[in-house]
Design a protein that fits this description.
By secondary structure, the chain is α/β, with parallel strands linked by helices. It is built from 13 helices and 6 strands. The protein has helices at 18-29, 54-59, 76-90, 104-112, 122-135, 137-147, 149-154, 160-173, 177-180, 201-217, 220-226, 242-248, 254-276; strands at 6-11, 33-35, 62-63, 96-100, 191-198, 282-286. The radius of gyration is 20 Å and the shape is globular. The chain binds one RNA strand through helix 3, helix 4, helix 8 and helix 13.
RNA sequence: AGGGGCAUAGUUCAAGGGUAGAAUAGCGGUCUCCAAAACCGUUGAUGGGCGUUCGAAUCGCUCUGCCCCUG
């Protein structure tokens, strides 16, 4: 076996304790840490995304933390390419690397690859979103049925985001969305080990609730105010930010907004667990 | 202690004696680049006992618990 390179990915629901775990493992391996959290990427979001502390960042070299701006359109596809390139570079000097984060789709993109769709055309997407608003979902569905019936049959047509995406790819490329999706998993030139962290549900929820209070004490509201101009960017469709935008708009009071952040964080954690539930490659470790 | 009120899902609130509903929380699921996103589905209750009635969440008695008022 000439290939001894190994990537260890630490994943798990928000608030489970991934950051601390990753630092210990990285120290043991002498590895830097590659982030695979789709929100800790953004330099303007330093409180609401629970990134590593400045001390932790000083302790181990981190990649993909505060590396991008919320003004950019960042996607799982872009992450796949950039993270893969970085790994190739780092594996020249390391045999074992540590990756940590909670974005299931980003992890899948890195491990298995996405099909090579062209980059999304923001104008086309905006146009489709406008049609969605004006004509309604049913119209877009009908069109999808016409130009790519197989996608119509297989995707979740109750989900506007999916319908728009399938139409977008088909219209943009002249090739059916469903035809793009036939490629098998990509093979990566390194071994991948997935470590899942888990803990008792009630305790996890407690940790999440407390962490939200800490974020508020640390000035989350000010941070949210500072990114207000970019609130329509995908990066800011994020738990902790959405709810405080509503508060700033006067739609809720602060207490309600904070409660909603807690609830939505709990739900997010649950969805993460569901997402990973059928990934048999993950070895789960209960945290105490 | 005396007087009054209340008791329905984890919570907040419905149901003029006739199929106990809703909101919310909770739970479960979907997933090929907006993924901390966007969707889909779902469990669960009349405080205990006795009575009236063909039939009780609803009327009566009683017990328990909570709240208010008065010494």
């Amino acid at each position: 076996m000439h290939n001894q390179k190994e990537l260890t990915i630490i994943l798990g629901p928000t608030g489970v304790g991934k950051t601390d775990y990753s630092l210990e493992l990285a120290k043991e391996y002498g590895s830097p840490i590659i982030n695979c959290d789709s929100r800790q990427l953004f330099t303007e979001m330093r409180i609401g995304t629970a990134p590593p502390s400045p001390e932790q960042l000083a302790c181990v070299k981190h990649y993909f933390i505060f590396s991008n701006s919320v003004q950019e359109f960042y996607t799982a596809g872009r992450y796949e390419l950039e993270a893969l390139a970085l790994l190739q570079e780092l594996f020249k000097e390391h045999d074992r690397l540590v990756m940590v984060g909670g974005s299931g789709m980003y992890i899948d993109a890195l491990c298995n690859g996405l099909d090579d769709f062209p980059q999304a055309d923001q104008q086309l997407r905006a146009c489709l979103m406008k049609r969605l608003e004006q004509e309604g979902l049913e119209n877009l569905r009908s069109q999808l049925k016409l130009i790519d019936n197989k996608s119509y049959q297989t995707i979740d047509i109750a989900n506007p985001q999916r319908v728009v995406r399938a139409l977008e790819v088909t219209l943009q490329t002249g090739r059916k969305f469903s035809d793009w999706k036939s490629v098998p998993k990509k093979v990566r030139p390194f071994e991948i080990k997935k470590i899942g962290l888990i803990r008792n549900r009630a305790e996890l929820y407690n940790r999440i609730n407390k962490r939200v209070d800490l974020m508020m004490a640390d000035g989350l509201l000010e941070e949210v105010r500072s990114v207000l101009p970019y609130r329509n960017m995908p990066a800011l469709k994020t738990v902790g930010y959405k709810e405080l935008f509503d508060y700033i708009d006067g739609l809720t009071n602060l207490e309600t907004a904070v409660d909603l952040i807690k609830r939505n964080s709990r739900r997010y954690a649950k969805r993460q667990l569901t997402y990973w539930g059928r990934d048999e490659e993950i070895r789960w470790y209960d945290q105490f």
